[in-house]
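EI: anyone free to look at a 139-residue chain?
SC: sure, send it
EI:
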Amino acid sequence: MKEPKNEVRIDKWLWAVRLFKTRSIAIEACKKGRISIKGVTIKPSRSIKIGDVIEVRRPPVTYSFEVLNLSENRMGAKLVPEFMKDVTSPSQLEILEISKVSGFVDRARGTGRPTKKDRRELDQFTEDHSFFDDWDLED
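SC: here you go
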């Protein structure tokens, strides 16, 4: 019977718990400095242990995950909660909500630049404050 591992490479673990679709994407994220432990960016070959808190930066938010168990093998989505716990701070989640609600118009990838009509509609939406004119704020 195999003995459970005490340490696993960070790139393998990130892929195994389904934070990244492929291991090469996880390696690239490490090389770009988007993965850190205790604020220190780490290399893809860095070993992690149970109890480590891994920070994954996906702008505009930095997610934090506590390692509950180790695995080098990719698992089904139902098993992921046994291997990691989301400990992302509420302030980071608030940033995510604000960015969703802030009026940012998310264009589908590959649709090209906005047309003149799209720009006019966006300008009208962001500059139209006429609905406040009927309110009497002095009362």
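EI: The chain is about 30% helix and 20% strand.
SC: 👍
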